[in-house]
Amino acid sequence: xxxxxxxxxxxxxxxxxxxxxxxxxxxxxxxxxxxxxxxxxxxxxxxxxxxxxxxxxxxxxxxxxxxxxxxxxxxxxxxxxxxxxxxxxxxxxxxxxxxxxxxxxxxxxxxxxxxxxxxxxxxxxxxxxxxxxxxxxxxxxxxxxxxxxxxxxxxxxxxxxxxxxxxxxxxxxxxxxxxxxxxxxxxxxxxxxxxxxxxxxxxxxxxxxxxxxxxxxxxxxxxxxxxxxxxxxxxxxxxxxxxxxxxxxxxxxxxxxxxxxxxxxxxxxxxxxxxxxxxxxxxxxxxxxxxxxxxxxxxxxxxxxxxxxxxxxxxxxxxxxxxxxxxxxxxxxxxxxx
Length: 338
Ligand SMILES: Nc1nc2c(ncn2[C@@H]2O[C@H](COP(=O)(O)OP(=O)(O)OP(=O)(O)O)[C@@H](O)[C@H]2O)c(=O)[nH]1
Ligand SMILES: [Mg+2]
Known about the structure:
By secondary structure, the chain is α/β, with parallel strands linked by helices. The chain has a domain at 61-269: P-loop containing nucleotide triphosphate hydrolases (Rossmann fold). Helix content is 53%, strand content 11%. The protein is built from 13 helices and 7 strands. It has helices spanning 15-25, 29-40, 44-57, 77-90, 104-107, 119-123, 138-154, 169-175, 198-203, 217-234, 255-300, 302-316, 322-332; strands at 65-71, 95-100, 127-130, 159-165, 180-185, 206-209, 244-246. A 7-stranded parallel sheet has the order 3-2-4-1-5-6-7, with helices on both faces. Strand 5 (180-185), helix 9 and strand 6 (206-209) form a beta-alpha-beta unit. Helix 1 packs across helix 3, helix 2 (29-40) packs across helix 3 and helix 12 (302-316) packs antiparallel against helix 13. It is globular and about 65 Å long. Residues 105-109 have low confidence and may be disordered. Bound molecules: guanosine-5'-triphosphate and magnesium ion. The site of magnesium ion has 3 residues, from helix 4.
């Protein structure tokens, strides 16, 4: 299992790093690209510099509307992001797009690798599209994506759209770095309320039925009814009721309404609610990093490594309880002193 290695102490900012941070804040696209390459790098000597850069940029972050977009493969995420991105960019908003794609190692390409799907948006002067950082364990990819988001924000983007494919933990990771989380659903109802699992519904602030155009309009309408009914059962609580909206990225119908609903969710949160949500996310993120760092250090410990094999075998064969074995590993562990 590969785990994220602990980040080295941030470098005290050099003159060079300060210049880069200033250029990023000034909206220089080439500086932004360089900064993102640094932040996404896994090279140990880059990590310290990246930490230094992020410290410099942190005061300039927080100003964007952060929107997560998820859904099953092929549901229309990229096409929707392009339509929404163009809607906003044409209205003069600066839009950034990034992807969290822990599977790219397996599939051999990133979600946004197929640039043709966002060709128009990627050429728009108000838009900046960043493909998924090079693959790896979700923890590492998610951390780099979160930092990418902060850098894009510091560069003055007013909206950041984060795409992730709706399989497993990457959804949770994206929900934990965004203000509003959109779940995209296919225009098929009835038995196919696939996406509507309780865990996912709890993450979603907004549901969008995609491809509501042409022959699919009746199916999209039915799906909207089914999903609305299912939500009433699954999420009966008070507070925010996630709306279900039909949308066609192809014709553009419903795109503006989805954006209005995002803003509606935002105003329902209120500025205090939003600040509280972001604080909780930042705290959770700190603990994720602590956990990742501890696990990486544990696995790198020679004493632990020497005992691991026999302890695992003892547990697997029932000669030792998992609790005893864990206690022995932890006793052998000498955490590195920072
Ligand atoms: N009719 C119709 N087709 C659409 C619409 N949006 C997307 N599609 C089609 O659905 C297919 C998948 O679209 P994508 O946007 O690539 O879907 P995705 O969810 O990003 O897919 P992955 O990233 O591979 O998970 C493409 O063939 C699109 O042309 C729409 O609004 N209407
Ligand atoms: Mg896609």
